[in-house]
Specification:
about 450 residues; two-stranded antiparallel sheet
Length: about 450
């Protein structure tokens, strides 16, 4: 596996320090995380050229999983080979893993206290506004043709009204994009980007990684990656039994890891529905609380699955102590969620140059992105119903299956704080953390005024 440039573009120790500093700034979802890497890697350190960075991002967007974490893994591979990929990818998620593990424990221990309830009174409506903002942002960029708007609306209806499985929505979106690409070729044409300025980067736009793909290398990466992916689930099955919560979570989140096209928001509607209605790991309103906690920590928002696993295993620990069971389940879920990201990058990186200019893939991605807008809108609807109303009812008729709010159960406190959050995050374009802080303060103030604190 020869390379035409040195294995380490920058010393691994220096790269490790840079990735650690990046990991502490990865708040606010993938847009904010990509912006941090853009500023650090492209603008300040000049380690990689602008076009090369965008090309890597495009490749990562094609993959299931958190694109920002995969972008870090990919750039780490470009800079320092496999060691760099592992360092960058692990450090990108490590602070979030630790922080959310602590917050999940706090929620389980104190979630029923008046103070914690008051905090979530502010946080949950803020999350509704943040997800709405994601719909607006992505929809503005992605839905450039009426046909793409139709794909988004169809995806929303399929998930919200008819309960179509999320993977099928993604697949149909890809097929629709491919068909639209054949009918309207301009759909797959990338937008031009301004020329890069400043000193020449260490990895220029023309000097791409030249490691040759080979069947031997691919087989080795695939064998090691699949073994690391499934081994903890197999061990959990042997020690705790096939019917244990650990195996259920390991298998479910392993499957979710390969269908998370479009980022965390896109798959959370699917995760929420399964975790609440099928497995019973969470109550209906708890998913939005978990996302609120994930929004306050660094790292990919898909980390919320760790909260789901922690709470689910705490309530169904089997023969283990509930705290030990919750911790093991959270770590197992995090493992099966992120190991595939490394596998996808290390397996596909040598082949990625073959994707440049491929109109078929670009068209399919356009369709997936349009469907994802509808999926995120479905998630916003789900969160809004369970946040703004204390009671819901299930309407079923033939293929139709829809959760509707009980209008008399409207929570005016949640409505007011949601409106405040929308003004801040959409109207005034505040970032996530200040919005969460203001809404948390509003929730505490409302609870004090109501005498519930």
């Amino acid at each position: 596996m020869a390379e035409t440039r040195p294995r380490d573009v920058v010393p691994l120790r220096e790269a490790t320090r840079a990735w650690f500093l990046i990991s502490l700034q990865t708040f606010g979802g993938p847009a904010g995380q990509i912006a941090v890497m853009q500023r650090t890697l492209v603008d300040e350190r000049r380690w990689i050229g602008q076009q090369r960075f965008l090309f890597a991002l495009s490749y990562c967007t094609l993959l299931p999983g958190p694109e920002a974490q995969q972008l870090a893994t990919y750039v780490g591979w470009l800079l320092n080979g496999v060691r760099g990929a592992l360092v960058a990818g692990v450090l990108f998620v490590l602070p979030g893993v630790v922080a959310l593990l602590v917050l999940s424990g706090v929620y389980v221990a104190y979630g029923d206290t008046s103070v914690v309830e008051a905090v979530f009174l502010g946080l949950a409506p803020a999350v509704v506004a943040i997800v709405l903002q994601a719909v607006v942002r992505l929809g503005t960029k992605a839905l450039t043709q009426p046909a793409l708007v139709a794909v988004a609306v169809a995806a929303f209806a399929a998930l919200t009204v008819f309960g179509v499985p999320f993977p099928l929505v993604v697949l149909v979106g890809a097929v629709a994009g491919w068909l639209l690409g054949r009918a309207v070729p301009a759909i797959a044409t990338p937008r031009p980007t301004p020329p890069d300025d400043g000193p020449a980067p260490l990895i220029s736009d023309d000097a791409l990684h030249t490691e040759r793909p080979s069947g031997r290398r691919a087989s080795l990466v695939l064998a090691v990656g699949l073994t690391l992916w499934v081994l903890p689930v197999l061990v959990a099955g042997l020690l705790a039994g096939r019917d244990s919560v650990y195996v259920d979570q390991g298998l479910f989140f392993s499957g979710a890891a390969v269908v998370t096209f479009g980022g965390a928001y896109a798959v959370l509607a699917y995760v929420a529905q399964q975790a609440v209605s099928v497995y019973g790991w969470l109550a209906p309103g708890e998913m939005v609380k978990g996302l609120a906690l994930a929004e306050t920590t660094p790292g990919p928002l898909i980390m919320v699955v760790q909260f789901v696993a922690f709470v689910g295993a705490y309530r169904d620990p089997g023969s283990l102590d509930p705290w030990l069971a919750a911790t093991l389940a959270a770590l197992l879920t995090t493992w099966v969620t992120f190991v595939p990201c490394f596998l996808f990058i290390l397996l596909g990186a040598p082949y990625v140059e073959q994707l440049r200019g491929n109109r078929t893939l670009s068209s399919a991605l356009t369709g997936i992105t349009s469907a994802v807008v509808g999926v995120i809108a479905s998630l916003a609807f789900y969160f809004a119903v369970h946040t703004l109303f204390s009671e819901t009812r299930r309407e079923s008729s033939g293929p139709l299956a829809l959760d509707l709010p009980v209008l008399a159960s409207l929570e005016w406190s949640a409505v007011a704080i949601t409106a405040l959050a929308c003004v801040l995050v959409i109207g005034r374009k505040w970032s996530v953390l200040p919005t969460l802080a203001v809404c948390t303060a509003a929730g505490l103030a409302w609870s004090l005024a109501a005498g519930s604190l």
